[in-house]
Design brief:
heterodimer; A: 508 residues; alpha/beta; Rossmann fold; 4 domains; four-stranded parallel beta sheet; 47% helix; B: 384 residues; 3 domains; 17 helices; 12 strands; 12% strand; globular
Chain lengths: 508, 384
């Protein structure tokens, strides 16, 4: 057993469901007890989707526990086939139901006989060995392989697109600033004179998957989800892939250079040097910004970085290489990316941290006393307690990470937005000096004298105690309303009862 | 939430636990000792999940031994997804706590035998609700001898046979059963103090258990309704559809019908007809008075079919879970999250306003959207 107050990663079935719900017209049936079905809430709330989440729970209740599912799962799959006419139904157990060791593969086979519209697949994932990311990666690969096999795509008969094109693999529901990243990435690809063949899996219909091998290159911007697909396409169809994350000016340059190299290897001559130069020096603002006087005050600032492997590594490089900020330590919760992560950041920070224990991360932040944190929502929370500003750069996400405005992390616009994020995370320049002169932001004490407008009324001990429980930001209003009420009713002592009566009478 | 000073932790099961290579007792001891050392809680509640149910970890068997060893009381509650609704989790924990309530110290025989039986209320509520309901009963000269739960474990009330117990929420049937069967208490089966109508009926029922006639309640209710007028004006004649997931549905439906609404469907995950008996009777009475049909109560509803019914009925408001709210709004249906009624302070006379504030908000908001500028953004008027 592991004591966990919080987890950076979700369980495996969440990864599978994220892939299923990202595809167009794919339905997932979850073999699970009530309460394991919170994915529908997460997706609906965070992504603010207008459509119902295409996930149905085939509920494991006491009957199922005692007698087994029998036909329940199969009937639910067939029912969804009729009701939603999906192209594919994915069946997944959860940690709980996987222990029941029912022969789900057999359920899938039997259901597939009676479905009219959908193919049926069992998500092939060990729920006690893999986490959310790994499960997503595997499920995506499983679906891709299934359709390449179904359409009997012959590697020797591939017709590549006339113009060089790429597949982008890694557009997944509930990922970090993903929608904006994808727009930015598509823009970058277009500006490089390339075409986008397919974006996976977001809004992709499974029947389109047979087109995958027609692209010239596969692009995997986030290594957590998509790498397996790229690797198996490399093995089976000899498709080159690029897993460099185009994040930060240097990262983007490396990414473009790799594309150039791959294209040249395929006999297509391109030279992106001037494009990179133009973008870096004149179009994008972040390189200039880093040189500008504003950023002088970043000198000697110390920060820590923590997140998923992709974002934490890229961010560490940006901070150290592009902004000249000292990274005291950099870490990730993606335990399985330990070697890759270490290799990536070892030259850019003093120490490396690989852990899933948020308490340890918190302790190390407190110990390092950095000027700013770049981490997940958990580090932001930790920073609040320690009074250290935090820029959020990675999942686990929060509704804040689904902004309506355009906030990519990838590409040149992403570089601008990251520079903003870094700069705005610090108290800098004149603000720094002024805070020193005036003794900090905190003027709360002065304001609290103004709460009571009326000195003629007295508050009983219980009422005062009750008042303390009311959140500070509305307390003033409650006091004023209650005292007004007391005055109007000639009450001199405000008791608990008076407080409630006032609420009842004056509630707006 | 989990983000705040964490009082909720998971004992994450690993492969070794599932395959029984690890010993449950040693594992739980390691975890609980750590919790004791880090947080020093007054009680540790073990909440069994479906997984512990399936792999049959004997939590009830392990707890007594371990609590002696580490010196912190351990209460076991099997609140798992094999139940129907999330509010039943509270019920399970309170039922477990009810078994742990101590008997009072024996006192002089003569003193206790003449006194009326004690009253213990059950249902977790913020202290302001506790205070308000206590005050209302005090006005009827009834003293509450304790609340289950109390803010701290060592402040739990004592309980003895034949004490009166009364619940404040409709989802506490297991707690009620435990108090009746195990602790031999007498349950006051009352409607729930939700809405002025329910609060009045609740107080009356408690008074009648003590052979008292409630005083001043008619006036109290009248004033409360008067204060609600600006909300009830909005609600009159409007229809509401409960998809059902917090078990407050019957009480809320009764209150909203009294406010002049029409309830299309009353979905509920689980209905204990005995514990909710008084509430169901009141619902029937209210419907008769208002001359409206008794709403269809659909137990354990199928959401998919409900969505079809909603599409057909086009109710003015749907009270639903978080997963369905935005898709319904996108289809032009007003919604309110059911979970807000669980977390808001809804009990008693005073807080009836908070319920209606929640219920009317989508109606007021969506009613006023038409008046916003963007509905006529493409007319020529804007540019002249």
């Amino acid at each position: 057993m592991k004591l966990a107050y919080w987890m950076y990663n979700g369980p495996a079935h969440i990864g599978t469901l994220r892939i299923a719900s990202s595809f167009k017209n794919v339905h997932a049936v979850m073999h699970a007890p009530l309460g394991d079905d919170y994915y529908n809430v997460m997706r609906s709330m965070l992504e603010r989707k207008r459509d119902f989440t295409p996930v149905t729970t085939s509920i494991v209740d006491r009957h199922v526990l005692t007698r087994g599912s029998q036909d329940k799962v199969i009937n639910n799959i067939i029912r969804k086939d009729r009701e939603e006419s999906p192209d594919l139904i994915i069946l997944t157990p959860t940690c709980t139901s996987s222990i029941l060791q029912e022969d789900l593969q057999n359920f899938v086979k039997r259901a597939a006989i009676d479905t009219i519209h959908a193919d049926v697949l069992l998500a092939d994932v060990n729920h006690y060995r893999v986490n959310e990311f790994q499960a997503a990666d595997r499920t995506l690969n499983q679906i891709v392989q299934f359709y390449l096999k179904k359409h009997k795509i012959d590697p020797s008969q591939i017709k590549k697109t006339q113009n060089p094109s790429v597949n982008i693999i890694g557009a997944v529901d509930l990922a970090f600033h993903n929608q904006h990243d994808m727009l930015e990435l598509k823009r970058l690809i277009t500006e490089l004179g390339l075409e986008v063949n397919l974006v996976l899996p977001q809004n992709c219909a499974v029947e389109e998957l047979q087109k995958l091998p027609n692209a010239w290159i596969n692009i995997v911007p986030y290594r957590e989800i998509g790498l397996s697909v790229a690797k198996s396409l490399k093995d089976n169809f000899d498709m080159p892939f690029i897993s460099t994350t185009p994040m930060g000016i240097c990262g983007i340059a490396t990414f473009i250079n790799e594309i150039q190299e791959v294209l040249q290897n395929q006999g297509y001559d391109v030279d992106y040097k001037s494009y990179i130069d133009q973008q870096t020096r004149f179009i994008s603002q972040s390189a200039w910004f880093s040189k500008s006087i504003d950023c002088q005050n970043l000198t000697g600032k110390r920060v820590v970085v923590f997140g998923d492997a992709t974002h934490a590594a890229a961010m560490t490089k940006i901070l150290s290489q592009e902004m000249g900020i000292k990274v005291v330590w950099s870490g990730t919760y993606s335990l399985n990316e330990k070697d890759w992560f270490t290799e990536q950041v070892k030259d850019y920070c003093d120490e490396i941290l690989i852990t899933q224990d948020h308490n340890l991360v918190g302790d190390l932040i407190a110990k390092a006393e950095p000027a700013a944190i770049f981490g997940t929502q958990m580090e932001r929370h930790c920073g609040k307690r320690l009074n250290i500003p935090c820029g959020v750069i990675s999942t686990p996400v929060h509704i804040q990470n689904f902004p309506l405005s355009y906030r990519p992390f990838l590409g040149y616009e992403g570089a601008n937005q990251i520079a903003d994020l870094i700069y705005n995370s610090f108290t800098l320049g004149m603000e720094d000096h002024l805070l020193e002169i005036f003794g900090g932001h905190d003027t709360r004490e002065v304001l609290s004298h103004g709460i009571s407008v009326n000195t003629e009324t007295n508050w009983s001990k219980e009422a005062t105690k009750e008042l303390e429980k009311i959140p500070g930001f509305v307390r003033g209003k409650i006091v004023r309303n209650t005292e007004k009420f007391a005055k109007e009713n000639d009450i001199s002592l405000i008791t608990l009862e008076v407080l409630y009566s006032a609420k009842e009478a004056l509630n707006t | 939430m989990v983000f705040a000073e964490p009082r909720y932790a998971m004992a994450e099961l690993e492969e070794g636990d599932i395959s029984a290579q690890l010993n449950d007792y040693t594992e739980l001891k390691r975890l609980c000792s750590k919790i004791k050392q880090d947080r020093n809680p007054s009680v540790i509640v073990w909440i069994g999940t479906c997984t512990t149910e399936i792999i049959k970890i004997d939590l009830e068997g392990l707890a007594p031994k371990l609590e002696k060893e580490i010196g912190v009381p351990i209460v076991v509650a099997r609140a798992n997804g094999l139940d129907y609704a999330f509010t039943q989790g509270e019920d399970t924990v309170l039922a477990a706590l009810a078994q742990r309530l101590k008997n009072p110290e024996p006192q002089g025989v003569s003193a206790s035998s003449v006194e009326a039986p004690n009253l213990i209320l059950f249902g977790s509520a913020p202290s302001s609700i506790v205070n308000q309901l206590t005050l209302e009963l005090k006005k009827q000269d009834i003293t509450i001898n304790g609340w289950l739960p109390s803010p701290r474990y060592d402040e739990l009330p004592t309980i003895s046979e034949n004490d009166f117990v009364c619940g404040i929420s409709p989802y506490l049937s297991r707690t009620a059963t435990t108090l009746m069967r195990r602790r031999k208490c007498k349950l006051i089966n009352a409607p729930f103090p939700i809405g002025p109508d329910g609060t009045k009926a609740w107080i009356e029922k408690i008074c009648s258990a003590y052979n008292k006639t409630a005083v001043g309640l008619e006036e109290r209710e009248e004033v409360a309704w008067k204060n609600l007028e600006k909300y009830t004006d909005v609600l009159k004649g409007k229809s509401v559809f409960f998809m059902g997931d917090n078990l407050l549905e019957i009480a809320l439906a009764r209150f909203l019908i009294n406010c002049g609404m029409i309830v299309n469907e009353n979905g509920i995950q689980y209905l204990d007809k005995r514990y909710q008996g008084a509430e169901l009777a009141l619902l029937e009475k209210v419907c008769k008075e208002k001359v409206v049909m008794l709403p269809t109560i659909v137990e354990k509803p199928d959401n998919y079919n409900q969505l079809h019914r909603i599409n057909k009925l086009k109710p003015d408001l749907v009270i639903t879970g978080m997963a369905n709210a935005n898709p319904l709004e996108a289809r032009g249906i007003n919604t309110k999250w059911s979970v807000e009624f669980t977390f808001a302070q809804i009990h008693g006379f005073t807080n009836a306003q908070d319920i209606l504030e929640l219920v009317t908000r989508p109606l007021r908001r969506n009613g006023s959207l038409d008046k916003l500028g963007w509905t006529n953004y493409n007319t020529n008027k804007t540019f002249t």
